[in-house]
Amino acid sequence: MSRFWKPGSEKPSTLLVDDEEGGVVFLSSSTSSASSSGFGYASLERQRQRLPVYRYRKAILYLVERHATTIVVGETGSGKSTQIPQYLKEAGWADGGRLIGCTQPRRLAVQTVASRVAEEAGVKLGEEVGYTIRFEDQTNPGITMIKFLTDGVLIREMMEDPLLTKYRRRNSLLGSSDDMPDPEPAILSVEGKGYTVEIHYVEEPVSDYLQAAVNTVLLIHEKEPPGDILVFLTGQDDIDTAVKLLNEEIQHLGRHYFDLLILPLYSGLPRTDQDLIFTPTSKGKRKVVISTNIAETSLTLEGVVYVVDSGFSKQKCYNPVSDIESLVVAPISKASARQRAGRAGRVRPGKCFRLYTEEYYLNEMQAEGIPEMQRSNLVSCVIQLKALGIDNILGFDWPASPSPEAMIRALEVLYSLGILDEDAKLTVPIGFQVAEIPLVLWYQGSPAMVTMSSQLIHVEFSKSWFVEDIISRPYSCMIKDPMISKMLLSANDFGCSDEILTIASFLSVQSVWVSVRGVKKEFDEAKLRFAAAEKKVIDIRGQLLRLMKGFGIPLKSCEGDMKAVRKAIIAGSFANACHLEEYSQNGMYKTTRTSQEVYIHPSSVLFRVNPKWVVYQSLVSTDKHYMRNVIAIEPSWLTEAAPHFYQYRTPNPALS
Ligand code: CDP
């Protein structure tokens, strides 16, 4: 190991004091954690009492009673998410039919924390302790007292009920001035209990971090005493490759390595795989969890003693000039590196192996990451603020101000979709309806994957090459998409709400896609996953249908008139129009909005067909910008759908 690694000079203590995202609890927590310890299985009650927040129980309850807002700052895994809601419940805050809500940044975190708290409280998940994520509600009105939810779900609840009355108990206090809580927030810092973490760096830069990560895991297993290993890679594609490489190496190296249990971890992981991650490692085994940055702050894995840090993560990045939002693999910041290392010191002193040099860490790594707000398309954020009644978004007190270009882009798109009016207010009814539709679009920049879903296409849609194109998308990240919502709301004008509803539902699930490159076992597993996703599509479709009915939009099929379907799609996606460069030999298109070079993705049925004009649903960026979910259009449909947008934007004769 010493040939490859050298210990770093960073003081271990610096790893343990800061919580990168400043955990904020009581209706909001930026971190959460998971699973029972693999080291001596103390009773659940004992485990609860060992957590750092336990010593602050009285102080927390006192501050919550006295202050309108209490902020608790503490390291990831110190017990903020799992314990504080229980303390509040035990102190009577959920009496009288009120709810204690606790938000988490990710869906997976919501699910795992809720099931942990249900287990600690000895109740069935979905009863006293429940959770709500988009399209899945595991609560029981009148019975649930502690509810975990994503930030997104809470924001949607605020739209219907701005005062969040089902969570409030303060109302009863307002009558008496003695009991009025202090409006100044209280801030309480919970001291962590982390152990020291020894940092090791590579001596020379590595050219292939995946292979380096695999080698490092094997070296740790060879040289280091028991303890689980957590490897930080970037995304599902990386992780799947590393899992495969490691399993191959294990087979090759033989018996001593059979103790390694290799597990992937990323959002969208099927439930059974999630459970494996959080099951304590059995004696004689060593768990190797290969994860995205979800294990950095959103989940805590208890038995981890060794961390392998690739130095990269997949990050959203947005270019307001080209209006392209993409997921790119980028170097992490020092703050992330410290947080990753800290994951090794939760149960006893640990080690972190950084797959980059100390010099790089000290001299080149950015101190902090760029806030997500400054790396995102602002469209859905603007809608949400508007729907909450915050109209002056330019004067809004942003935690990190977005760029004026990004803001202008967002306003422009929303105006052109008819979601905002000339005074930048939500339109009635379209704007308010769009704000209410919980639609998101999955997208990611991974290698092409091929679908096996033709069966479903024929069951659900019966025809249509367009749908096949939609189906051939791989998974992974999501953006809120008012364009899809607008398409849904416009479908009735084209007599195809039935078809569009199905298309929109498909765009909301993540995992119907499988690779046919897999061997038989993988193929069978994939089929199972697909079956689950199919059920989910039907479920989402049902929910969207109820929403549409609520808006008074009837369900109507256009009976195979694909022109109508395409026109309805354009009603939402006209801004994503592209035309084929006339003399292009290689299928190059240019976007009408920003003249960006884009190409039809090879997995699309329109790849090589290259229609003259197309509209896409999403872009993925790898070596080039690729359009996914593409349909062929007539340019005149663009001016029909959005005359204001196209008249001033594109003085292209083809459009006049
Ligand atoms: O919110 P915070 O990051 O401060 O911590 P938490 O989510 O409340 O987690 C506190 C502890 O609960 C973790 O350190 C784990 O030991 C345990 N936990 C668990 O074992 N399984 C879960 N699914 C969640 C938490």
TrEMBL record:
<feature type="domain" description="Helicase C-terminal">
    <location>
        <begin position="213"/>
        <end position="389"/>
    </location>
</feature>
<keyword id="KW-0347">Helicase</keyword>
<feature type="domain" description="Helicase ATP-binding">
    <location>
        <begin position="61"/>
        <end position="174"/>
    </location>
</feature>
<keyword id="KW-0378">Hydrolase</keyword>
<dbReference type="GO" id="GO:0005524">
    <property type="term" value="F:ATP binding"/>
</dbReference>
<protein>
    <recommendedName>
        <fullName>RNA helicase</fullName>
        <ecNumber>3.6.4.13</ecNumber>
    </recommendedName>
</protein>
<dbReference type="GO" id="GO:0016787">
    <property type="term" value="F:hydrolase activity"/>
</dbReference>
<dbReference type="GO" id="GO:0003724">
    <property type="term" value="F:RNA helicase activity"/>
</dbReference>
<dbReference type="GO" id="GO:0003723">
    <property type="term" value="F:RNA binding"/>
</dbReference>
<keyword id="KW-0067">ATP-binding</keyword>
<comment type="similarity">
    <text>Belongs to the DEAD box helicase family. DEAH subfamily.</text>
</comment>
<dbReference type="InterPro" id="IPR011709">
    <property type="entry name" value="DEAD-box_helicase_OB_fold"/>
</dbReference>
<dbReference type="Pfam" id="PF21010">
    <property type="entry name" value="HA2_C"/>
</dbReference>
<keyword id="KW-0547">Nucleotide-binding</keyword>
<dbReference type="InterPro" id="IPR014001">
    <property type="entry name" value="Helicase_ATP-bd"/>
</dbReference>
<dbReference type="InterPro" id="IPR027417">
    <property type="entry name" value="P-loop_NTPase"/>
</dbReference>
<dbReference type="InterPro" id="IPR001650">
    <property type="entry name" value="Helicase_C-like"/>
</dbReference>
<dbReference type="InterPro" id="IPR007502">
    <property type="entry name" value="Helicase-assoc_dom"/>
</dbReference>
<dbReference type="Pfam" id="PF00271">
    <property type="entry name" value="Helicase_C"/>
</dbReference>
<dbReference type="Pfam" id="PF07717">
    <property type="entry name" value="OB_NTP_bind"/>
</dbReference>
<dbReference type="InterPro" id="IPR048333">
    <property type="entry name" value="HA2_WH"/>
</dbReference>
<dbReference type="Pfam" id="PF04408">
    <property type="entry name" value="WHD_HA2"/>
</dbReference>
